[in-house]
Amino acid sequence: MEPMKEVAAARNRWKEELGRNKTVSRAATSWGHELDVVYGPDDLDHIDYVRDIGFPGMFPFTRGVHPSMYRGRLWTMRQYAGFGTPEETNSHFKYLLEQGQMGLSVAFDLPTQIGYDSDDPLVEDEVGRVGVAVDSLRDMELIFEGIPLGAITTSFTINPTAAIILAMYLAVGEKQGVSPERIGGTLQNDILKEYMARGTQIFPLRPSLRLTGDIVEYCTGLVPRMNTISICGYHMREAGCGLVNEVVYCLLDAMVYVEEALKRGIPIDRFAPRLSFLLGCGMNLFEEVAKFRATRRLWSKILKERFGAKNSQSMKFRVFSGSLGSVFAAQEPLNNIVRGTLETLVAVMAGCQSIHTTSFDEAYDLPTEQSVQIALRTQQIIAYETDAASVADPMGGSYFLEYLTGKIEKEVEREMARIEEKGGLLKALEEGAIQRDIARQAFEAEQKIQSGEKVLVGVNRFVSGQKPYEGVLHQAGGGVLEKQLTRLKQVKAQRNNDRVRRALEAVRTAACQETNLMAPILSAVREYATVGEICATLKGVFGQYREVGF
Amino acid sequence: MEAGKRKIRVLLAKPGLDGHDRGAKVVGMLLRNAGMEVVYTGLRQSIDQIVTAAVQEDVDVIALSILSGVHISLCRKLLTKLEENRMRELPVIVGGVIPPKDIEALKAMGVAEVFPVHSTFDQILGFFKERFDTVPATP
C-alpha cells in the first residue's frame, strides 16, 4: 500500500491542477452527499480488508453470500408473471420445467392476495387479472397437476393470505405423497411492507405479525426447506423512498420479524437461515452495488452482535432483486430496454441470488410475451456474453465503490437509530410517519423530474415528440371469471359443508387464543374451505386494518 | 385565488383492489399545494363508497387513480352510478396506467380528462384552471 503521505501529497498537486479548470460540475449521490471528482486509497485509509471487506461467503459477507458466487451457481433468472386460470398456469409451469427451469414463481390475482373469493361482487373485474385466481384447494391442485412438488421449488408472492396458500401447497404435497420436510420454496409473507407501500394488507398490524410468526414457527419445525419470509425494501423504493431508506425500512422490518420469532422461543440460528430479502436495483451502478454490499455487511453484524447468531447461515443476506420500474418512462418505451439492462447489470455486479428484469412496456400494462422474452434475454446476454459473472464481487476494490459502501452503511445506521429513538418501526407505522415520509420523498422526486433537475431522457430532455406508443400490449384473457365461478360452485356443492363449518370454527377458536394458526388453517383447507371464508373468519377476530389519514 | 371564493374540493379515490398509491399521493400533494381541498378516500373503494363520499364531501371533481388495468370497466360503472344519482355534471378525471388506445374510449364514455403516466404538473393543474377558471398557486 502506498504510504498515505505520498498519496496525500499527490492529491494536493492534483487539486492545484483541478483548481485551474474553470468549471468543474457538481455531482452528488442520490441522497445528496457531495461527491469528489476522484477517489483514491487515501479515502479508504480506515478500511481493514479482512475486517470490513473480506472474502465472499465469509463474515461480514461484503463481497457476497457464497464462497464461489456465480462460479458455483449462476443467479436464478426468475421473471414474475401471472396467468388467469389454474389450468393456464399449470401449462405454463410445465412448459418452463421442460425448458429446464427448476424454480417456479406464482403470481396471484388481487382477490386471492387480499382474501376475497372470485364470487365476491367487489372483485369481479380483478379475477385472474394480475395473476392466477385461487379460491380453494381445488385450484391449487390444478396449478400443480402433474408437477412433482418434491422435485421443484416454488416462490409465492403472497402476503396476508400466505398461511392459506402455504397450507394449500402442503395439502397438494400430501395428496402426492410428498411429506412437508421435502417441500421447498419461498413465501413473500412480508406484511409490514404492505402497510408501507404495497397495499394488500387485510388485518391490523399486531394480529398480522402474529400470523407471520405462526408461519415461521410452523415451518421451522415442519417445513424446514421453506424460506418463510422474503423481507422487502423494493416496494418502498418503488413507492418513492430513496436508496438509503429502502435499506432502512427493509432491515427494520426484518428485525421486527426476528423479534417476533425469538419471542416464541425459537433459537435465532434455527429460523434466520430461512429469511430472504428483496431489494430493487436502480441505474446508479456504483451506489446500487455499494448498497447491496453495505446491506450484507449490516445484516451480518446485526445478526451476530444484536441477536447473537452463531451460524454463519443466519447472517447471510440472500437477496432477490427486481429492476426498478418506477424509473422507466412511458414516452419512448423502447429506451426502457436500456434502463432494464443497466439495472440488471447492477444486480449481477452486486451478487444477487435471483433477478427479475422489468419489461419495457411496464408503464402501459402487464408485459407481452415479447417484452418478457427481451427481459429474460437481457439476463442471459449478461450471463453468457459478458464477464460480469466471471468473478465474485468484480467491482470490489474500486476506491469509489468501497467509499460508497462505507458511506451507505453509516447513513443507514444513522437513520435506523433515528427511527428507533423515536419509538421504533411499529410505532412509526401505526402513526403513519413512514407512509407520510415515503409520500413526501415521492413528491420531491416527481418535482425534480417536472422541473428537469432530474433528467429522464425522452421525457424532460432529448424529447423527440414521438407519437404515443402503439405497440402490441398485453391482452387480458377472457372467460376467467366464468370458469372460476363455475368451479367455486362445484367445490362448495361437493365438499362436506358441516366439516367446513367445524373447521372454520376451529380456526376462529385458535385465532382468539395463542395457538398456532397453521394447523387449523391446514385442516380447513383440506376440507376445501375457501380463501374468502378463512379470511372472513380471521377478520371476525382480528378486525380490519384502518388506513392512516393522508 | 379570489377572496371569498371557496377552494376547489377534489375527491381523490383508489377504486378496486389495486394498492399502489404513489401517484395518487403525489397528485394529492400537488393539488393541496395549489390551494385545493383534497379528500383522499384511501384504498379499496367500491363505486358506491366513492359516490357516497363525493356527496358527503360535496366535491367539485372526482379524481380516480387506477393502475391495475380495470379503468374501462370501473369508469363505466362510476359514470353509470353518477347518472343514476343525477350527478352527471360532476367531472371525473382518471390518472394511472392507461394505454393510449383507451384514452379516447374513456373520454367518449364521459371521463372529463385522462392523465396517463408522466402527465406533467402543468397539464394536471391546467385542467383545473380551465374548468374552474381559477389560477392555482405554483406548487
How does this model look, in words?
The complex is a heterodimer of chains A (550) and B (139). Chain A is α/β, with parallel strands linked by helices and 550 residues long. Chain A has helices at residues 4-19, 49-53, 86-98, 110-114, 137-143, 162-176, 192-198, 205-222, 234-238, 243-263, 268-271, 285-306, 335-349, 369-385, 399-421, 425-431, 433-451, 480-494, 497-512, 518-526, 531-542, and strands at 76-77, 103-107, 153-157, 184-187, 226-227, 229-232, 275-281, 319-323, 354-356. Chain A has a five-stranded parallel β-sheet. Chain A has one domain (49-451): Methylmalonyl-CoA mutase (TIM Barrel). Chain B has a five-stranded parallel β-sheet, sandwiched between helices. Chain B starts with 8 loop residues before the first strand and ends in a 7-residue tail after the last helix. Helices cover 42% and strands 17% of the residues of chain B. Chain B contains five helices and five strands. Chain B has 139 residues and is an alpha/beta fold. Chain A binds chain B through residues 110-111, 114, 116, 122-123, 125-126, 129-130, 194, 197-200, 238-240, 326, 329-331, 363-366, 439-440, 442-443, 446-447, 449-450, 459, 468-470, 473, 476, 547, 549-550, and chain B through 16-22, 25-26, 28-30, 40, 42-44, 46, 68-70, 73-74, 97, 99-101, 116-118, 120-122, 139.
